[in-house]
Amino acid sequence: MTEGIPIIILALLGITLFVLGGVGGFMVYLAEKSAAVSHAEAENDRLLEEEEAALAVSNVRSRAAGHATLSHHSSHSRRGHGRGRHRSVSPRRRLNFPD
Q1: Measured distance CA(56)–CA(35) in Å, rounded
Q2: Whole-prediction pTM
Q3: Structural domain contains residue 51
Q4: Number of structural domains, the chain?
Q5: Do the domain assignments include residue 2?
Q6: Tell me: the pLDDT tens digits for 31-43?
């Protein structure tokens, strides 16, 4: 019986190292995944800022062009245009949920 104890100890040590290796590998995986997500978020933030800047420039240009033609549009009837045309619909009716 005492002859098998070193073999059992080595087997338990092997199992322990295998489990700790798996836990360590999972931690490395999580660190890489976190770095990739962080990099993607930073890239998305950069692209969003560029898009917002381009949209702001576009809005400024369209407002400047709109002021030039404002007198032309003001002489026409605005009937049927604008927000008053659409009636408010509750979210339940819009999604066809039964009342």
Answers
A1: 31
A2: 0.46
A3: yes
A4: 1
A5: no
A6: 999 999 888 888 8
